[in-house]
Amino acid sequence: MKRPAHAKNRDTTAALYVRLSRDDNLEGESNSIQNQKKLLTKVAKEKGFTNLIVFADDGVSGVTMNRPDFKRMIEELEKGYIGAVFVKDLSRLGRNYIEVGKLTEYFFPENDIRLVSVSEGTDTKDGENEFAPFINIMSEWYARDISKKCRAANSIKGNSGEPLSAAPYGYIKDPDDPKRWVIDPEAAAVVKRIFTMTLNGYGTEQIAGALEKDKVLTIVHYWQSKGIKRPSRNSLQGDPYRWNSSTIVTILSMQEYCGDVINFKTYSKSYKLKKRIHNEVENMAIFKDVHEPIIDREVWESIQAKRGAARKRKKADGEKNMFSGLVKCADCGKNLWYHFNQKNPEITYFNCSNYKSNRGGTCETTHYVRVDLLEQSVLGEIRRMTKFASNYEDEFIKMAAGNSQQSAENKRQFKQQELYKLTARDRDLDKLFGRMYEDNIAGKIDDARFARMSRQYSAEQADVSEKIKTLQAELAKNENKAVTADSFLKNVRKYTRAKKLSERMLNELIEKIEVHHAVRENGANRQTLTIHWNCIGVIELPERATLPVIDVTIHTRQGVVTSYVPNTALA
Questions:
Q1: Beta carbons within 10 angstroms of residue 25's beta carbon
Q2: CA 532 to chain CA centroid, nearest Å
Q3: Residue range 5-28, pLDDT digits in tens
Q4: Are 348 and 387 in the same domain?
Q5: Structure pTM?
């Protein structure tokens, strides 16, 4: 109905507020939006109100006061032309007794607004209802009880392996069993394309641009085209083909594409708070191989490892190098940075990002290596590896399996030792804080020094805590890792006749390459590289007459010869 233009119509103007949430559906049809409107319209007209304005929040919990039409109603009430508010019961206003109490005890009286609650028989025109505060408390208790029951039910479902979330893009609910997901071929093809492009070295912005160029519908618009209803903060506004880099990142990180169900990825601190907090890995419930995978597990884990590395550096013209993020300093462990020679841009190379000549660097030597030497040496090693795996498969599997287990165990032990050290330091810092506080109280440390030391130790403890969380997550992830020597062999077979390196080849075969500082002998440089293969670590292949010999020599413009030397000391 039409809204009155002047405050003189206030005595005949009323707001009818109706609300329904999923929890209220349990009470049956009587709580439906339409029935609430009919009831309130009837009562309001009986009480002499002819100008009625309806505010409705459908499907919104009363626990939160951040409801669209509720907020709009409050804004209109503050303008002063509405004389009364009608609700079916006080729980329609909300199930938060503090906030509803502010409305009924302060806001409505201060603004001279009449409140009518039909079910409770409350009309503030007849005087205050002494039971209203208790009704508000009971409404909140109801919400709290519903929340507990929902959490308990979700806990049972989640820990039994039933997916708690909706099927992600690429899957749909199984028509025969809504507790299972089945592949949606059209969307799954897009997911596979995203992973394939990532393996081939494309960045998330490039992938998003390619999808947009090819007119691939964004996730929300795709669901709409298929009649799949999903809530979305961005709704359906904007270009239906405009993919965001953040969406690509989310897709690449989803373990569900390996066929797994991951429950309890987020949690909320209270039923009153809608903000979701990311859960620690150890608190999640992970069930493997529940549904058909879209992406091979080894591919997914390989991409997670690569995405965890440092961002790729570019040359001045924007060119990236496929080795960026893979090459590490053999001494300090830091990434090597990609550069080009200022006088001759065709010469590209890597050197240690932690070299002491850089600001704050501590590494004593440059660990300089030219890209052409890297390319030829690594391609030679891959050819040796693929040749050996092809000609001596049984021997290779036996070696690789042993190396795989040993490599994983070495990494686990190293991370476990680091975790022990950090945990001990965290405890020491707690003790230091305690002693400092006691000394400050006793007057042994003045307030200024206490504040300065507190900031210093607080910053260190925050850093230590972050590292502890990271290590704990990595250890938990490694325990669940399923990449094996068999999967590595499958990747090796794909590159038996490789004549040129590609970023995908490096991603699938190599975990990292350690670059040692070149040693000068008899006027020539000897450049040593240590290749850590995915799954199996560093491995020394036995000498066989059928295996190709790696002979890489680079002549620099100063006439210096640099030769590649494989490192098998760690094998």
A1: 12
A2: 27
A3: 445 688 899 999 998 876 554 444
A4: yes
A5: 0.49
